[in-house]
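Continuing the batch. This is chain 6 of the set; chains 1 through 5 are on the previous pages. Same settings as before, nothing changed between runs. Recording input and output for traceability.
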Amino acid sequence: MSYVKGLAGIVAGQTKISSTDNQRLTYAGYPIEELAQKTFEEVVFLLWNTRLPDQDELLRFRNDLVSKMVLPAETIRLLSYIAREPQHPMSILRTTTSLLGTTNDVEHDEPPKILSKMLTAIAAIVRIRDDDPLIDLDPTLGVADNFLYMLTGKRPNAELSGMFNTVMILHADHEFNASTFTARVVSSTFSDYYSCLTAAVCALKGPLHGGANERVFEMLSIIVENEMDPLSFVAEQAHAKRKIMGFGHRIYKNGDPRAFILKEIAAKLAEETNNQKYFEIQQQLADYMLKNKQLHPNVDYYTALIYHCLGLKKETFTMIFAACRTAGWLAHVMEQRSQKCLIRPNSEYIGPKERHCVR
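Output for chain 6:
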């Protein structure tokens, strides 16, 4: 056996859900560039069934998901206390995800209901923390549109609807990333869905996996609020040996395919919401990093600005990422269950040997 740090490049399992082979992101064989034009419901159906739905299936699936975007009264009552705690929203989400598995009759909850409840719970956390009233679902809207409506209190127009559906699709899955693999490990023990999702949220909460979009916007805010020259800021960070957030990816050495799509959305939203200064700074930083460090923006780089343009606080950015990624987590939990195989790797022992207790 050979040890590879962080399991980099190690094939830890097989999946039909998504792939990053040849630095291309595909869901069930479909390139993300084509799927970005679909609706979130179509892509969720694809991730869960490895095929796209026909129109009748899509309508039933959408109606099923939307109808389930309701939380039990007991969950709302408890959330009204939990969400107001001073902890980071990801800590609140960790507790809330576990809570969803304990309120009302959850023994027979299946992925459609679980996804819908997670989206509604995340929107509720945001609203409660902002002292805003909770928003009831609108049955005339789709899943992504309802989620955005519940977050902001504003029904999206057709253009914003299309852009937000694309954002959710691009974040829906990414093969065996840290949180997804964590969910699969828990699923391999045949634990329940909510336990798998709670573990995934815990993994995403770690700063080496989630939270990069939040730190990207912190960086942009420092530059704007202090009226700094972006390139001077980069020089200061380099001198202090600090990382410039939002650049580079373990897999995509020639650029993250999701970032190319998100860049266009960020540019449009920045113009429409009078946030061009942030986008201009992003372009200056991106040009510098590519020229001097040969690093491209990743999925978090433009997502940070998009979420800001939607009126969301930076502390909630990773939680919104979790809302999108729940669809993929559930797909992998179901697939791992079907494989009926406990994930239990070996380790290489490097501690002391041949020690004995002496009386």
